[in-house]
Design brief:
The chain contains eleven helices and nine strands. It has a domain at 10-107: Phosphorylase Kinase, domain 1, CATH 3.30.200.20. Strand 1 (29-34) and strand 2 (40-45) form a beta hairpin. It is globular and about 60 Å long. The protein has a five-stranded antiparallel beta sheet, with helices on both faces. It has helices spanning 10-20, 69-79, 96-99, 117-122, 128-144, 161-176, 182-193, 236-246, 269-279, 287-310, 319-342; strands at 29-34, 40-45, 51-56, 89-93, 103-107, 202-204, 213-215, 221-224, 231-233. It is of the alpha+beta class and 343 residues long. The protein starts with 9 loop residues before the first helix and ends with a helix.
């Protein structure tokens, strides 16, 4: 058995997996897929070549509510019978003695992650519109799921989703920033005053975009990934986030300037919104508010990154990197203001 990476006790995890996945052949190989402050993901391969995916919280002291493995496992298990593609869940381990923290196991789904502009260019031109259509249809399918019908009716508070989000991220900046950012306050007040009424409550993914889906070889969504922010609430927040991450604005900087959907063939965000509107019965006339909200929200999140960077908590760093983060925050806030002004 090869040496296991950090976050995996190969002996005890292998023993647990032998019980959870009958037919599994030892020894197992564990290879990290993602790492960092978010939940950790590992590719697990057995001696026969069968592949699985294991998810666990990040290493160190973390808030259990922010990295709830049982919650993620519950969501993908509940959605499995629906038209929303998810990785088939195998089992959940809540015994910390096995691996130091809860984790869950799911089947590996074949496909690829289309993360950045280079990945978008690598997609065959005839598959690009197929990816866009499948991405939007999948989001509409998720938003059409009735939470009570799949056993997720108590996943979270249904009402006042956006109001709670505004309070949460404003508080994070107020409590965690080492500077005053007037536009954060100004936009918060404007969005609070002009907030659209929530149209019912559905399942909100919380971070839905192309690179948070496994895309099949035929261009369709093979599995929606990264459910750690999923809750109940205003589903149009997901659509607003999709528009932001589409990267249509030619002045975009940072990650928004490097998204795959800027490549010719994926279509514009307006095309994407039109398709969603045809699939959903929700009124999207107030969508600009949600797009502005997502820019503001990402600016607040990025401000937290800037503060940790300035404090030396981000590992190797240089002054230029810190400047780039500040530029990205300024862009996001100015873009949010422009969208509200033009709405």
């Amino acid at each position: 058995m090869t040496e296991a990476p950090g976050g995996i006790n190969s002996e005890t995890v292998s023993r647990w997996m032998a019980g959870a996945a009958p037919g599994l052949r030892q020894p197992l190989e564990f290879v990290p897929i993602t790492g960092g402050a978010s939940n950790l993901t590992y590719l697990v391969t057995d001696a026969s070549g069968a592949r699985f995916v294991l998810r666990r919280p990040p290493l160190g002291h973390v808030l259990a509510s922010a990295h709830d493995m049982g919650r993620e496992h519950r969501i993908i298990s509940a959605l499995a019978p629906t038209s929303v593609p998810v990785a088939p869940a195998i089992g959940l381990c809540t015994d910390d003695s096995v691996n130091g923290a809860p984790f869950y196991l799911m089947h590996f789904v074949e496909g690829s992650i289309v993360f950045n502009h280079a990945d978008g260019l690598a997609v065959e031109p005839d598959l690009r519109p197929i990816m866009t259509h499948s991405l939007i249809d999948t989001l509409a399918d998720l938003h059409a799921v009735e939470p009570d019908e799949v056993g997720l009716g108590d996943l979270g508070r249904r009402e006042d989703y956006c109001a709670r989000q505004l309070r949460r991220w404003k508080r994070q900046v107020d409590d965690g920033s080492d500077r005053t950012v007037p536009l954060v306050d100004e936009l918060h007040d404007r969005m609070t005053t002009g907030m659209p009424p929530q149209q019912g409550a559905g399942i909100v993914h919380g971070d839905y975009r192309l690179d948070n889906c496994m895309m099949g070889h035929d261009g369709s969504v093979a599995a929606v990934l990264d459910w750690e922010l999923c809750t109940l609430g205003d589903v149009l927040a997901d659509l607003g986030g999709m528009v932001m991450w589409w990267g249509d604005d030619p002045r975009a900087v940072g990650r928004l300037a490097d998204v795959p959907t800027r490549v010719e063939g994926f279509g514009s965000s307006a095309d994407m919104v039109d398709q969603y509107a045809r699939r959903s019965d929700r009124d999207i006339s107030d969508l600009p508010w949600y797009v502005a909200f997502q820019h503001w929200r990402l600016a607040c999140i990025t401000e937290g990154v800037r503060v940790r960077y300035a404090a030396g908590a981000m590992g190797d760093q240089n002054e230029t990197g810190g400047d780039e983060i500040a530029v990205a925050i300024d862009y996001l806030l100015e873009r949010a203001k422009q969208i509200l002004d033009e709405a």
